[in-house]
Write a structure and sequence with these properties.
The protein is mainly α. The chain is about 70% helix and about 0% strand. It is built from 17 helices and no strands.
Length: about 475
């Protein structure tokens, strides 16, 4: 088999790069353990280049679900860092050399890029530029790059199936640890609210942030269980994950988490229960039952022990008022990404001796990107919800032509988006992973639908013969 000149050049470049990398590593750390790692490096590199989508998904799973903090045994291995290097390397390789990644565009990508642009423009205009730069450099630029990577790499039913199952699996792992911590009284906030990694300063040490992380896999697990033709094992896996995740959200006693999970289950119920009167009656009873089950009234903050508007609710109102003040003073750029906390003292009408988080996606985006950023952000969300609904309709009109994995993913995306919209009132997620994972998969599924399914037929036009 004769290799083309381009293929020979690619192989030579890869070989030289590996030799250079091995030489540098051995110069920096001449250790026997490194020799083993070097021996495995070519296999790891080939696997990374052959499975770029899987590597990127694993990076997202470790970064979003904080797996190295959920299981501290992995913490010193720097797995997120290694996966980020592998992901970016695979992207650069396939975009720059092999050209195996097809670059395409859509209106949704245009709107997302406008929002990304406003965030970036706001960095040099931030009230605390080092804080904004640090967050962008440490987290947000990776979210932007990986969002585009997921969009362009999600092309087949296998890709969507892999994404749905990995999100469900890693979410279920986080849910199990949440329940174990609750049962063993580890890291409880206010004596009753479950957390993870609070002693090591993990993001999941806040019960509201933990509830946010658990919400995304709820939508995918429910879809795996409820979508037809998924297979017994997949359905059982989905059902088990739903039960674990539902119980874990309850254990956090997060009102935003409860609203989000009600919205997700509500989407599935609304689309399956024919009688809407029955649906709303059942939904009302379920909401009351959830509130009682989560024992919100027993919380130290926001519980029945506090009369009138509880301290938790008042704290949110003060934070939202501060966010509005930041936007009024900086209407076009806001105070800058990740700058709300640092500016709370200057804008809050009530100071209790410490800064607070905004606890609202909408007000968080408003404060940190201004009115322009909020308009762009809401435009993106509205477009994603509309697109997701239209794609699911077309899929369900052509089920005989669609792999069940794509149908399951499309259902999960619509439920996840609406759950995000509802929970966004109380949970801060404007610049964290969930919205961008959902956005990337929505755009990718829409692309698949546009390429493989006929368009939705337009309603017939009637002609008035009496004119």
């Amino acid at each position: 088999m004769v290799l083309s000149t381009q293929h020979r050049s690619t192989q030579v470049l890869l070989t030289l790069s590996l030799c250079l990398l091995i030489g540098i590593l051995w110069k920096l750390l001449p250790h026997p353990a490194l020799a083993i790692a070097i021996g495995l490096l070519p296999i790891a590199v080939l696997f990374t280049l052959n499975q770029p989508f899987l590597i990127i998904l694993l990076f997202v799973m470790f970064s979003f679900f904080r797996i190295h903090e959920v299981f501290p045994q992995f913490y010193d291995l720097k797995i997120p860092l290694l996966l980020s290097i592998a992901s970016l390397g695979a992207l650069a390789w396939h975009i720059g050399l092999t050209r195996k990644i097809e670059i395409w565009w859509s209106p949704e990508l245009t709107n997302m890029s406008v929002f990304f642009g406003l965030v970036i423009i706001g960095i040099p205009l931030a009230s605390n530029i080092p804080v904004a730069i640090e967050y962008f450099k440490g987290i947000y630029w990776k979210i932007i790059v990986i969002t585009f990577a997921i969009i362009w790499l999600s092309r087949t039913a296998r890709d969507f199936s892999m994404a749905s199952k990995l999100i469900t699996f890693f979410g279920m792992l986080v849910g199990l640890v949440t329940l174990l911590n609750k049962m063993n009284g580890i890291g409880l906030v206010e004596g009753t609210r479950a957390t993870i990694g609070r002693d090591i300063g993990s993001v999941l040490g806040d019960p509201n942030d933990l509830a946010l992380v658990l919400l995304l896999p709820v939508a995918f697990a429910t879809s795996l269980f409820m979508t037809g033709s998924m297979g017994r094992f997949t359905k059982a896996f989905g059902l088990f994950s739903v039960l674990v995740l539902f119980s874990a959200v309850i254990a956090t006693q997060s009102r935003g988490g409860l609203l989000g999970i009600m919205a997700i289950f509500g989407v599935y119920g609304y689309r399956r229960i024919q009688s809407k009167a029955l649906f709303f009656s059942f939904a009302g009873i379920a909401a009351i039952a959830l509130f009682v089950l989560a024992d919100i009234s027993g919380r130290a903050s926001g519980g029945a022990a506090e009369t009138g508007i509880d301290a938790s609710a008042m704290g949110r109102l003060y934070a939202w008022e501060a966010a509005y003040g930041m936007a009024l003073d900086n209407p076009f750029s806001g105070v800058g990404i990740n700058n709300f906390y640092a500016n709370y003292f200057f804008y809050s009408p009530h100071w209790d001796g410490r800064n607070h988080a905004v606890h609202s996606t909408w007000f968080g985006v408003l404060a940190e990107t201004g009115f322009l950023g909020l308009i762009a952000f809401i435009t993106v969300i509205v477009m994603l919800v509309k697109t997701s609904f239209q794609s699911l309709q077309r899929i369900e009109q052509n089920l005989n032509q669609v792999d069940p994995a794509i149908h399951a993913t499309a259902q999960a995306l619509l439920a996840g988006l609406l759950g995000t919209v509802v929970s966004a009132t109380f949970l801060t997620q404007g610049f964290t992973w969930p919205i961008y994972i959902l956005a990337a998969l929505v755009i990718a599924v829409t692309r698949w639908v546009n390429l493989h399914l006929p368009p939705t037929p337009s309603p017939p036009h009637t002609i008035n013969h009496n004119r």
